[in-house]
Amino acid sequence: MLERIKERWRQQEYRRFFMYYLGAKVGGVLLCLAIIKVVSSYWFHPAFADDAAAAVTPPTPAYINPINTMWTVIAAFLVFFMQAGFMFLEAGFARTREAVNVLLEGIVDTCLCGLLFYAWGFAFMFAHGNGFIGYHWFFLQGVPDTYEGTGVAFLAFWLFQYAFADTCSTVTSGAMVGRTGFWGDLIYSFGVSGFIYPIIGHWAWGPDGWLTAIQPVAFHDFAGSTVVHTIGGFISLAGAMVLGPRIGRKFKRDGGGPMPAHNMTLAAVGGVILWFGWYGFNPGSTLSGMDMIGCGRVAANTTLAACAGGLTAMFWLYPRNKKWDCGITINGFLAGLVAITCPCYWVSPTGAVILGAVAGVVCIYAVDLLEYLRIDDPVGAWPVHGACGIWGTLSLGLLACGKYGASGPTGPDDSSPVTGLFYGGGSQLLVAQLIGSASITAATFGVSLLMFYLVKMTGTLRISREGELEGMDLHEHGTGAYPETPTIEPAAVSSTSPGGGLVGAPVAAE
Predict the structure, then answer these.
(1) Residue 484 has what pLDDT?
(2) 441 lies in a domain?
(3) Which residues have a Cβ under 8 Å from the Cβ of 119 and sit 6 or more positions away?
(4) Are 38 and 75 contained in the same domain?
(5) 246, 285, 337, 340: which one has the fewest Cβ atoms less than 10 Å from its Cβ?
């Protein structure tokens, strides 16, 4: 036997095979050990390890701030309730035949986003890493008691940020109503919640994101005009462009207009629910119930911007058709809310009114632009969230009043106030806002186009022509929202408002 081994060892091919075989065995063992190590470190702990540590380590003093934690949790509940608003709003602006599809997409997106944000989304966005991505705390393993220096319990902060991530994912679906296949929705939602939102969001909100290190003035986005709304708005724009318009959609330059909403009551109530939820979105972003003055100012600014946006949009549109348009009024106050989300902590009430009024006008002309480009956005997702998200981000560089600095766990810190161009602060802040908004917008739009084209290649992005004509609710879900009512659809009319403009529209049966 030894002689046979010696004889074979003299053969070069045998020696090479032996080394390959031995290397493969060693590599396999090391890989198994690595897998065991990773799995055990994430999901298991050595027996009695906690008891042993407690025996040699004195108990850690309590340092979780209960007021800040409860304030953050309550704000998270309010932001989460915005999902009901989104479902009402989108279902109301949609047609009768696709209401169930809108509702189910909202529910499924919420469930999917929660699991993805638990597994790796939060880690990508809010963990320490580099300027572009975080890479700790996957599956919420090894997390500290509080997040950074906020005094907020870690999982309370996770819940709050999950509600934000869910908002971005739901914004995306608005422009894609009426023709997106359900499998396609699941696939792109996986990409949005699992990768696009958390990775790009890390640039601005991560503890070491590169936009927070811009010199001499860092990029600011208090509650997400860019991180949540611009990202969501431009993903929705990319989706609408790749999908193409709904069957029968005739644009204004071709003698038509947006398809009217099937239920303006739902849309209006949904819009007001969103307004209510924004009181968690913006004031909650202080992460500090101890900053009472800041919370009050943010809530007041949020209210004033919404009021100005709604009224300005309504009055601005009136001369076009001499009608008071409900749809554009809803989107007008939502535009004001989106715009104030970035600068809400740093502007005065007067500044909030100004930027909200401008947002109402921006929303109208953004709708006009989509209509001219023949891009079908049934609910106005890009005009409200994309265009007005950019305006809100840039408005900080103009209207930050130079009195307020940052919210802290024990109260406000106004030692380094944020000052915009109109208040003598120069152009440095405006430049930082331009850099942040442009980089996030470009990256989001480019990656989203690639994602949607890849999903389109799978054949799942758009429902079949037969399914769309039958109606998404019946074709995809087997039931309609109004099973006892015949399916009636209003014809398209020449209105500027997404989903609006019912006056003079003939009713046509499908």
Answers:
(1) 75
(2) yes
(3) 138, 139, 194
(4) no
(5) 246
Q: What is the average pLDDT score of the chain? A: 88
In a domain, 485, yes or no: no
Which helix (H) or strand (E) segment holds residue 406: the answer is strand 406-408
DSSP sequence for 213-248: G-SSS----SS-IIIIIIHHHHHHHHHHHHH-PPTT
Q: Is the pLDDT of residue 329 over 50?
A: yes
| pLDDT(28) > 80 | no
Listing DSSP states for 332-394 in one string gives HHHHHHHHHHTTTTTS-HHHHHHHHHHHHHHHHHHHHHHHHTT---TT-HIIIIIIHHHHHHH
> Which residues on adjacent β-strands are paired with residue 134?
129
Find out whether 421 and 398 touch, Cβ atoms under 8 Å.
yes
Among the ranges given (19-28, 108-117, 170-179, 358-367), the one the predictor scored with the smallest mean pLDDT: 19-28
Q: What is the CATH number of the domain that holds 279?
A: 1.10.3430.10
> Are 291 and 417 in a shared domain?
yes
Q: Which range of residues forms the domain containing residue 237? A: 66-457
Domain shared by 42 and 70, yes or no = no
pTM above 0.70, yes or no: yes
Peptide bond into 216 cis (omega under 30): yes
| One domain for residues 136 and 213 | yes
Token pair 């989203």: residue = 448
Q: Is 134 helix (H, G, I), strand (E, B) or coil?
A: strand
* Same domain, residue pair 123 and 175: yes
